[in-house]
Amino acid sequence: MKTTHRRTLKTASAAMMAVGMLAFGVSAASAHVNVAPDDPAAGGYTHLTFNVPNESPTAKTNKLEVSLPTDFPFNSVSVKPVEGWKAELVTTTLPKPVTVAGATVTKAVTSVVWTADAEHQLGENEYQAFSLSVGVLPDAGTTITLPATQTYTDGSVVKWDQKTVDGQPEPEHPAPSFVTTASDSAASAGPTSSPSVTPVPATAASTSSNDAGSTAGWFGLAAGLIGLAAGVTALLRTRPAKAS
Is 100 helix (H, G, I), strand (E, B) or coil? Predict the structure, then answer.
């Protein structure tokens, strides 16, 4: 019994350590300003969500600026309102004209600036999500880097603009980025030819499905009864014998 008890304690301790390490990893990764697109398909539009944590124990975050690409600028940028934060879309002249969706673009939104009022500044252990709707996205496999600048109430500024290189340790202040994927139309087109498929009558398919479901149900019930019996047997064996 002592051996079994010790093994149980060791197993529980190992599980707790694993959970703790996983939680620590998630916490460490989430301490950066990062971006998450909901649909990065080339040629389409996507919602970008920037998660911004406050990392200072003494100052609050009161401003965030995100830079948008100029080599493949977005021809559409809109911002989702955040309570207590004023958003400004900054339009500038591009370094050189770019063709986007068949049109020549010379000016575009190149940055978005969010500024908080005094009541909604981010304090210690707080974060805020900022969202943009942008498009159109460039060709599949393109890495879109969106450098961010985070400003604190004590005047300190953190630039999240360092490039992440595959095979190398993550920099201290990595720039938010994502990679575009194949366009939705290309993904939905599938292979040019497909194997022949013999259609199955609806009644036959329904009967087969019902039979399979019934069989699976009986097997599940039987497995449950066997497990219950095993549990009762184990419980009876572990009870101390009564003194005669």
Answer: strand
CB 41, CB 181: distance < 8 Å = yes
Reply yes or no on domain 31-165 having CATH 3.90.1170.40. Answer: no
Domain boundaries, the chain: 31-165
Model confidence pLDDT, tens digit, residues 110-140: 999 999 999 999 999 999 999 999 999 999 9
pTM for the full model? Answer: 0.65
Instruction: Tell me: cis bond preceding 232? Omega within 30 of 0 counts.
Output: no
Instruction: Determine the Cα–Cα distance for residues 138 and 9; give it in Å rounded to an integer.
Output: 54
Q: Is the peptide bond before 90 cis (omega within 30 degrees of 0)?
A: no
Contacts of 97 (CB under 8 A, 6+ apart): 104, 105, 106
Reduced to 3 states, what is the DSSP secondary structure of residue 76? Answer: strand
Kindly tell me the sign of the dihedral angle through the C-alpha atoms of 225, 227, 230, 236. negative
Structure tokens at 200: 């199955």
